[in-house]
Amino acid sequence: MSPPLLIVENLTVSYPSAQTPALSDLTLNLQRGERLGLIGESGSGKSTLARAVAGLLPRGTSVAGRIEWPALNRPAEPGRDIGFVFQDAGASLDPVMRVGAQIAEVVRADRNLSWHEANKSALDLLAAVSLPDPATLARSYPHQLSGGQRQRVAIAAALAGEPALLLADEATSALDTIVQAEIAALLDRLVRERNMALIFITHDIALASNLVSRIAVLQDGRLVEEGVTHDVITRPSRPYTRELLAAHWELPAP
Ligand SMILES: Nc1ncnc2c1ncn2[C@@H]1O[C@H](COP(=O)(O)OP(=O)(O)OP(=O)(O)O)[C@@H](O)[C@H]1O
Known about the structure:
By secondary structure, this protein is an alpha/beta fold. It has two domains: 6-76 and 164-246, Rossmann fold (3-Layer(aba) Sandwich), CATH 3.40.50; 94-156, no CATH class. It has helices at residues 46-54, 89-92, 99-111, 115-128, 134-138, 147-159, 177-193, 205-209, 229-234, 239-246, and strands at 6-14, 23-30, 35-39, 62-68, 82-85, 165-169, 197-201, 214-219, 222-228. The strands form two sheets. Strands 5-6-7-3-8-9 form a six-stranded mixed β-sheet. Strand 1 and strand 2 (23-30) form a beta hairpin. Residues 15, 18, 22, 40, 42-48, 58 line the site of adenosine-5'-triphosphate. This is ABC transporter ATP-binding protein. It is a peripheral membrane protein. InterPro entries: AAA+_ATPase, ABC_Ni/Peptide_Import, ABC_transporter-like_ATP-bd, ABC_transporter-like_CS, P-loop_NTPase. GO terms for molecular function: ATP binding.
């Protein structure tokens, strides 16, 4: 069996001046191409885990434990090995730069290409995220796009470095239900086509259940349950998971 993409072992993270750790003794691994959902109530440590994996914890945060990338044989480079998509795509785009140029700039930085090649790659990426007429869209500014279109642009930028892992932190939460489903379907297609691993952080268990093969449940910074999506959803072993599921009455049968 090939080595895991990511190993997180006994990870404990404490923010400066916080009374209790945001993550405690958390162990988890991820295979290449695997899709993992991270669920848990607000403040349970989901984003902290994503930030720790991406090396984006604020200065002064104390970190104990191991984060390793056996399949890469070296530490992961954020941006290149890990792509990020956050809730507020608008905030991650430069308002005064045309979207094509923004993506081309990320491509150039991550893949060391000429401007000509990077511009061509940017158009390919805009097409890959199913944006119609990429050439026209590339000349638009972020404010000229809808929220769903901006999120597609953010996903295109996240793909620019051809990452092995896509980290989506509440990537669909700010969108209306139909657009959420479209973006989830897009992520599903992209991770399969590009054999990327996915960590999908969400409050929407129903949405996650259609997208991920494994679910990890966080409570107060601890991993309290982990398993195959179908098993966690149909036979949760912990009362906390049952409560989370019960709160999602609209959950379709997986
Ligand atoms: N920069 C920070 N400094 C101090 N404490 C923080 C910081 N960021 C998060 N925390 C605290 O760490 C804990 C975990 O927060 P985190 O954002 O990881 O949870 P979450 O599950 O992602 O929550 P949400 O679903 O609301 O985004 C919370 O108690 C939070 O208040």
